[in-house]
Amino acid sequence: xxxxxxxxxxxxxxxxxxxxxxxxxxxxxxxxxxxxxxxxxxxxxxxxxxxxxxxxxxxxxxxxxxxxxxxxxxxxxxxxxxxxxxxxxxxxxxxxxxxxxxxxxxxxxxxxxxxxxxxxxxxxxxxxxxxxxxxxxxxxxxxxxxxxxxxxxxxxxxxxxxxxxxxxxxxxxxxxxxxxxxxxxxxxxxxxxxxxxxxxxxxxxxxxxxxxxxxxxxxxxxxxxxxxxxxxxxxxxxxxxxxxxxxxxxxxxxxxxxxxxxxxxxxxxxxxxxxxxxxxxxxxxxxxxxxxxxxxxxxxxxxxxxxxxxxxxxxxxxxxxxxxxxxxxxxxxxxxxxxxxxxxxxxxxxxxxxxxxxxxxxxxxxxxxxxxxxxxxxxxxxxxxxxxxxxxxxxxxxxxxxxxxxxxxxxxxxxxxxxxxxxxxxxxxxxxxxxxxxxxxxxxxxxxxxxxxxxxxxxxxxxxxxxxxxxxxxxxxxxxxxxxxxxxxxxxxxxxxxxxxxxxxxxxxxxxxxxxxxxxxxxxxxxxxxxxxxxxxxxxxxxxxxxxxxxxxxxxxxxxxxxxxxxxxxxxxxxxxxxxxxxxxxxxxxxxxxxxxxxxxxxx
Length: 604
Description:
The protein is α/β, with parallel strands linked by helices. The protein has 13 helices and 30 strands.
């Protein structure tokens, strides 16, 4: 059966444990260097602890080494990769093709930073030895289906969390504004900044709007469509998110994916163990900039959030009345003291917390100017987050137990949900039981006391209950048997695939935006038929006059001014802000937008 994986982010070991407990089939985590999130790094020993915790459940651990590498970093990158593999990680997620050439003898996943958008790219990467390809987030369902049909590699798809508005691995906006580069793990997220939209004459058309900020992804209702398209791994974004986000979102997707799998008996989940949340997952109660399917159903408007790049949270209702000290709201949901609320005021988005609630009236810590009818959002649910923090959710593997007692001793056989079985026994003289039924019940009670182990003993059969088994002996056998069963749990092997050097790259020219930044990557592309490699934009002294972002997102489309639909807005358009200026180029044939760095040059 085809294994289907729910893949969760982990900022650190603590977050990884929560993800595993909540039902993840795999986690991805950064090592100490060369990961695309510099704020989420971990020493090797923490990675080893994560592997040890995840492995008994069959949960895989992937390490991110997905930044570009310079020549003088190759040795350090290889050392980091080998240390991560020695710590037990199951695969490395990489962007730079230098890692393909290091003969690491491991499973490699091609990062979304490789910009995998076409069947041709996905097919080539499989031939080049990648076990998995991670898709660009802007693909439609039809495009995803075509990629899955074209490649022998597993296909991984983002289903939840923040979206990069530019194509991943091809965005240089942060790099054009500061030394911080997204391709080096230090994106400053300028796409979330306020921008002015101007025309060629310098007139301001829109001022101070977050014109590049798109809503977050939520495909929880579309998992069945993605399964049918051929996706194997469903990825949640968020290696910088807090533990409450991980617990809530992973538990919610576990339930959603299990429902989708139940309708598809030819598919099975990739790990074992049952997670029972002691709360009801609600995606809107964790960090979100608003929900969107982005372009899964094709390119369309309505994916942006011009007013704010912040998490507004769940919509509650509207302000029905305003007093000097509070608001009366028409919300069906009731707030509680300590909740965080936000609303759009004439000064922009403002937030505060709730001091008191009396019926329909709320009394905030700070009053903001708001008219009747203003929408109100809760961006922090105090009681829900308190419940998350207090959660004692565990993940357990179901075990059946069979006990056989005789006058000469007792034997216990434990069999888990995958059929893995172990036996323990004691040769000891047993006395006849005065009450065989109560003896059998007592044995069962002892075996069910699996405590803090990863197992839950469920079905129990007792043969020979006429021979008395002391509680201490039953407990001793249970402890020994469960520990043996834990160590007997199998480890899925890494899928080491060789690079076919006869495979042809889909193009003979590698552009500057593809960033070949070291000698090993250059050799990789040349061996696969590339005849010209342009100097990498990532290492250019300046991005002036260069395209610094290519995107499926189109500001004209979002504004209802598509060039295909007789727009009122004609001529050149620019984004200006923070001392920088970018010309917007529109490729209608591909339905894409590009940003060209025009800082320092006022064009006619």
